[in-house]
Design brief:
Order of helices and strands: HHHH
Distance between the termini: 76 Å
Strand content: under 5%
Number of helices: 4
Shape: elongated
Structural class: mainly alpha
Radius of gyration: 21 Å
Oligomer: single chain
């Protein structure tokens, strides 16, 4: 029983990978509206990297091996998102550049 209490916790690599993917996806989603989100995501991923590295090397067990198919699919999806994000942003925010649009707030 005491061995189980002294055993280091598992380092769940899948959860860490999912958290990083969520951070990147949210930065891509909110990037056109809030450009500082790219910087926030970079700072968050950098701090997460160093904290997880310290935890993985000092405090936890060796993580289980992941299959490569899911990793490759996520990388392709992230590349596709980052390639299509400028096109979607331009079409969403600059679609009415040549036309007259009414202001959001009008005074009477």
């Amino acid at each position: 029983m005491l061995d189980a209490l002294m055993k280091p916790p598992e380092f769940i690599l899948a959860e860490k990978y999912a958290a990083i993917c969520k951070t990147v996806a949210l930065a891509i989603l909110y990037g056109p509206v809030l450009p500082v989100s790219y910087l926030i995501a970079l700072v968050g991923m950098t701090s997460t990297y160093w904290i997880d590295k310290w935890i993985a090397l000092r405090r936890s067990q060796k993580p289980a091996r992941l299959k490569n198919e899911s990793t490759v699919a996520v990388v392709y999806t992230m590349k596709a998102l980052s390639a299509t994000q400028p096109i979607i942003a331009i079409s969403a925010f600059y679609a009415t550049a040549g036309r007259h649009t009414p202001p959001l707030f009008t005074s009477t």
